[in-house]
Each structure stands twice: as structure tokens, then as C-alpha cells.
Amino acid sequence: xxxxxxxxxxxxxxxxxxxxxxxxxxxxxxxxxxxxxxxxxxxxxxxxxxxxxxxxxxxxxxxxxxxxxxxxxxxxxxxxxxxxxxxxxxxxxxxxxxxxxxxxxxxxxxxxxxxxxxxxxxxxxxxxxxxxxxxxxxxxxxxxxxxxxxxxxxxxxxxxxxxxxxxxxxxxxxxxxxxxxxxxxxxxxxxxxxxxxxxxxxxxxxxxxxxxxxxxxxxxxxxxxxxxxxxxxxxxxxxxxxxxxxxxxxxxxxxxxxxxxxxxxxxxxxxxxxxxxxxxxxxxxxxxxxxxxxxxxxxxxxxxxxxxxxxxxxxxxxxxxxxxxxxxxxxxxxxxxxxxxxxxxxxxxxxxxxxxxxxxxxxxxxxxxxxxxxxxxxxxxxxxxxxxxxxxxxxxxxxxxxxxxxxxxxxxxxxx
Length: 416
Fold this sequence. Notes:
By secondary structure, this protein is an alpha/beta fold. It is about 35% helix and about 20% strand. The protein has 2 domains: about 10-220 and about 400-415, Rossmann fold (3-Layer(aba) Sandwich); about 225-395, Rossmann fold (3-Layer(aba) Sandwich). The strands form 4 sheets. The protein has a 7-stranded parallel β-sheet with strand order 8-4-3-9-10-11-12. A 6-stranded parallel β-sheet has the order 15-14-13-16-17-18, sandwiched between helices. Strands 5-7-6 form a 3-stranded antiparallel β-sheet, with no helix packed on it. A hairpin with a 4-residue loop joins strand 6 and strand 7 (about 95).
């Protein structure tokens, strides 16, 4: 069975010096621009710079991905020298040069079945597991870190058979990640094999039975360094901002409806700027037209340097139905933005926001409460400034120096 882009050498280079270190394989679906993916990319670069050997194992190559600072690979066109086919789906094919990036940097392995490897739906399930097993066998990592849902089940089902320690991370509400009877049964059958389980909140931890709960640890996400900057002081832009995937769970429609009401008779010159992409884009654009606010709503898509786009905004809003520990809310608060969030399961926003002190919490799906909260912050600028200033203190707790040290200590204990 073909495995794409593997290097199992233990010696590698960073800043011109050969190093030997523990080997961590980090497993996720892709490096597409999402919250979990950003955390994994940040961890990969951090551990590499700390002297560890790091390999990223992903199922596929997404169209828009986060940049890995020390990537040993490079995406190339078909026919390029050293090009390796890593995906040949109906939508697109993708090639990479395994050594086209940084010499001795972070390697990447792709676990998706190519068309030539596929047989049938049922057979492919076993073939995927077999291919992943071969990857672990070839890599021989000291530890596998897996993120999200089915990946965690796959990692525990395969790597542990090779005697490899596996740490899994549940990034959202576990009720959402394991939302079917089959997934929940598989999770309950495999999580006992984990060397450790990382969750985002006490609410997430409480979901699990005792034999799993005793393996859980809560580790915070670090703030992207671009969000660690002096708080903006001055007249704020007349804008309300949201950042995240455009989908039902993020519930941008709730904020759009509230925004339409708040700006109907006053605050008419305010804009609602929505950053991100996703399956609900057309649906949300149509809603803006129906609400009569299409001239006030700007769909900005995926942008680079998000902090620079939002730091001067009047209000940041997170309206999710479910969340783990939302990176975008942490980052908005670190910038010192006045923030509103739904008090959604499994409790991440409530751990960040002290209602009325460093932000505002509203019930999930409550249009009236969201409207009142928006109106309160736009109407009372002194109050908004006060809670924004208080929110900015969060960056001390979630700085990379603080949080990454906790992840490192935990991984070192697992691998010792």
C-alpha cells in the first residue's frame, strides 16, 4: 500500500543545527482554515522549534490551508520535479514535493486512499485503517496527537495496536463530535486506550463516563501571536464583526436579525462585517436581502491578518449553538474588543466571560437578548470601553509562552 510523503529519520535541522528529539505525529483531517487546524499548526511549529521531531499526518490537502512555518513539503503542479500525488478526488487532484520546503523541517504524510487503492465502500473502511497503520509503523513516533471526532477513533484503533501512545483532543462539544449512536459507541470503546484526553472545558469533561473522565485534562489554546499587540485606543469603527465558518452552528443569522432591529431607527451608519466562508454563504446573503440590510452587511470571506481587520471594531459577536473553547472569542477579547457571546455548551464562553465585567453572555438562540446586548454596547460607549479593557487582560493567561509550556509539560510526561 502506497504511503505519501514519509521520512522516518530521527535527525533533522532547525536554524542550522542538527537536533535529536522525541517524535510527535499530529493527526487531523487537513490544515484548512478552522479553529482546531490553527491550534494544531501552532503546536507543530512550537514543538519543532523546541527540538522535537514533528510529522503532520492529514487525510487530505485542502484548497485553503494555514501556512506551516517550518514545512518540509511544498504544494506543486502536476509534472513538477519530485511531485507526489496525494489526492485524486473528483473535485481536485493535488501534488506535493516532499522536500521542496525547509530542509529538515516538518514532514507531512497523507492518509487518504487514492483511486487506485480503493475497492468499495465497505472494503475502503478497512483499507483506510490499514493505510493509517502502515503510516504509524513507518513513522514510529513516540506519541500521536489526534484532533477531532472520527480521527480520534481512527488513531486509537490503529496506533495503539502498534504500541504507540495516543493522546486525543476533543475540540468542540463532545455531544456534537460524537453525535450518532455509532460514533458514540466507537468513542466509548476506544477512548479507554488513550494515553491522555485533552478537552476544552469542565463541561466537556463532565460528558464522559468516569473511566474516560479520569484520563481528561483541560489545556488552553494559545493566542496567535498576531493578536498580541497593544490595545487600540481611539474612535472605533462603526462596525460589528464576526469571525468563523459560515454554517448553522455559528448562527450568523441570529446576529443579522438582531443587527437589523438595532440599526432600524438608530446606528444606521453601522456595518456588520462577517469574516469567513462556508456552506451558508448564499443563504446568509439572501437573508440580508430579506431583512433589508444587504447594504449594511459585508461578507469579507477568508482574510489574512484577521487582527488588523477587526481590532478597531465597536463590537465582536460569537453566536454559536455549540463550542469547545472558541479561539476567535479568545483572540477578540485579547485585542480588547467589547464582546458578546452565546452561553453555549459545553461552557467555553462562560469560562472566558464574566457577564457584565469583561463581556456579555446571552442565551443560545435568543434573538431578543442578542438585540438588547448589541444595543447596550452600541449605545453605551463608556460601558463598552470598560468591558473591552477588562477583556484585554485575557491575553496574559492565553499567551503562547504560558499555554504552550502547559502542552509541553503534559506531552513530556506522556512520553517519559
